Amino acid sequence: MVYSKEYIPTDYLHNLKTYQYKSIDKSPLSNYVLNHYWEYLVTFVPLWVAPNMITLLGSLHIVGAYILNMIYAPNLNKTMPSWVYLVQGSCLWIYGSLDAIDGKQARRTGQSGPLGELFDHGCDSLTTGLALTMTATAMGLGCGWKTVVFFFIGYINFYTSTLEEYHTGILYTGYFSGAVEGIVISSLSLITTGILGNGIWKIPLFDKIAFMKPIIESTNISALKEFNMVDFYLSFMVIGIFPTVYASYRHIKRSKAALNKSTNQAVKDMIPLIAYLGPASLWLYNSPSVLAPFPTLNRMHIPMFIGVVNSYIINSDLQKYFSGVDEVALLWICLSVSFIQYSHFALSVISVICNYMDIYCLTIKHKKVL
């Protein structure tokens, strides 16, 4: 493969030397509980292990768990063997743990730098969809709009938090975030499903609450009668995404105000996400043939390159535009193009940064002098 420097213009390479990682973590779970575990865990990692190798190993655990999904429940609606849920929950926990200690290992070995953050976020962008897949399967969401909402909210959260870091120069972790609490909840959900079975997600909640029974009987609203753990989980995500996005915007606005700059560019940077989610939703709505294999294909496609599909479907008359076209085949083409594009981007940027910074990606070239 011929690598390209177009992703990082030569005139901007000097900025890599001035890179500084900044973060603000407000999570009580992270600060008062998990950080002690992470600090202890990283002591078991030899100093010759590169931080990016830790990141990669964590991501491979998610890939392995995802392969089990492809084998046992490709459409997210089949009950898998109990051991699969337990393995997936364990893999997700390992992923979260390794993702948390790669930065600590970087500081231990003196390898902190821009490549580490890029490698970490790049892996996260690919594994987020795979991790969502495992949780969606445990809940038995299947091929439907609940799955679409589940995935879209996950990526809105990931996209806006990345945008926030880009415009503020600081990685914010709020009181509740997908990177900490989200991984813990998903991991425990998978393990619980493995122990108790996925039937727990279908148990009506309000029917089990004494003071709610008279309300349900008097209103006779079927939605209340059928409201279960899946609905609660999705409702929590839908409601929670609004303050999450607002918090990101508030941090960006505060950062720009300190520099006497406008937030207009940050708002404009949301356009690619909206430009994808809108047409993609219309395509799924108008084309059941695409919605049916949505979990299998789209969960792989979305994280790779938000926008390839958009170039095919940004047309108001979708049904007419795709008339006579095998849309599932088209989706496979989009996935292939996305994979090639993302791979070229990742390998090119890694190559450029490694050459300029005189470092290796997965091994330590210049060991820290102790």
Automatic annotation (TrEMBL):
It is found in: Membrane. Pfam families: CDP-OH_P_transf. GO terms for molecular function: phosphotransferase activity, for other substituted phosphate groups. Keywords: Membrane, Transferase, Transmembrane, Transmembrane helix. InterPro entries: CDP-OH_P_trans, CDP-OH_PTrfase_TM_dom, CDP_ALCOHOL_P_TRANSF_CS, CHOPT. One of its GO terms (biological process) is phospholipid biosynthetic process. Gene3D superfamilies: 1.20.120.1760. The chain crosses the membrane at residues 47-68, 80-98, 136-158, 170-196, 232-249, 270-286, 329-357. GO terms for cellular component: membrane. It comes from the Eukaryota. Belongs to the CDP-alcohol phosphatidyltransferase class-I family. This is Uncharacterized protein. It comes from Furculomyces boomerangus.
